[in-house]
Every structure is written in structure tokens, then in C-alpha cells.
């Protein structure tokens, strides 16, 4: 049961693989690929992923599922690569101690007549009549 849930979280719906493939092959995307990279991207992986997804969903093919999960994991690693290699910001385990201290007086004064303050007051006191914007 846990393995099935884990697989469903890692494998996208088959329709998404098909849409990615169609988008990759579209004229608009081809123009973009050529303009940005100087060559056309290889879209066969999206087609292979779609075919593997269909084999997994319809025939419960374990090899197709395994290949699909490996590709998804490599995509995830590639997507998060820049985030993990970023050494500009120090990553913290908990929020700063003073994360919820009150605003300085000059900011509180500036906020008094703002739309945000009005909405905050409405949410705090439910007895007041709330205002909604409706465009007809």
C-alpha cells in the first residue's frame, strides 16, 4: 500500500507527459528552443515517459514504472541543483527569534488608513459588515 502511494506521488498523470511532449514539438517551442539554445531540443524523452506511463497505468508494467520514477528523480535533482549549490544565503533551521515583533511606530502610522488595515479589521471583528467587490 505504501509503495503504491509513493509511486503515485512520483509519477505524474499520463496526460501531463503527453502535453509536455506536444508542447516540446510545437512550432512556438521550436522557435524558442532555437532562439535560446541555438538548436532544437530532443523531445523523445517526453514521448518515452508518456509511453511508459501508459504501460504502467494500463498494464501495471513494473519496468516502465521504474524507468519513469528514475527519470522523474533525475528531473527533480536537475531542477533543485541551483538551489542546493547556492551558497549566497545561509540556510536556517528555524525562524529568527523576533520574526513576529510589532512594526515600528512610523510603519504602524502609515498602515492605519491602508486597504490592508481595513481588511484586517474586518477579519478581526466578524460583526461588522464585510465589503466585497463584484464586477457585473
TrEMBL record:
Subcellular location(s): the record lists:
Synaptic cleft
Pfam families xref list: PANTS-like (PF11326)
Query: For this UniProt entry, what's an example GO CC term?
Result: synaptic cleft
- Domain of life, source organism: Eukaryota
| Family of this protein | Belongs to the UPF0545 family.
- The identity of this protein, by name, is Synaptic plasticity regulator PANTS
Amino acid at each position: 500500500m505504501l509503495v503504491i502511494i509513493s509511486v503515485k506521488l512520483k509519477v505524474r498523470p499520463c496526460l501531463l507527459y503527453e502535453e509536455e511532449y506536444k508542447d516540446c514539438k510545437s512550432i512556438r517551442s521550436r522557435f524558442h528552443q532555437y532562439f535560446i539554445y541555438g538548436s532544437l531540443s530532443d523531445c523523445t524523452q517526453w514521448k518515452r515517459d508518456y509511453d511508459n506511463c501508459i504501460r504502467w497505468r494500463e498494464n501495471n508494467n513494473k519496468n516502465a514504472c521504474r524507468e519513469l520514477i528514475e527519470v522523474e528523480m533525475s528531473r527533480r535533482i536537475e531542477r533543485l541543483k541551483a538551489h542546493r549549490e547556492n551558497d549566497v544565503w545561509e540556510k536556517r533551521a528555524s525562524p529568527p527569534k523576533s520574526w513576529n515583533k510589532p512594526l515600528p511606530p512610523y510603519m504602524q502610522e502609515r498602515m492605519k488608513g491602508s486597504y490592508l488595515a481595513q481588511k484586517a479589521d474586518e477579519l478581526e471583528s466578524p460583526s461588522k459588515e464585510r465589503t466585497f467587490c463584484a464586477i457585473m
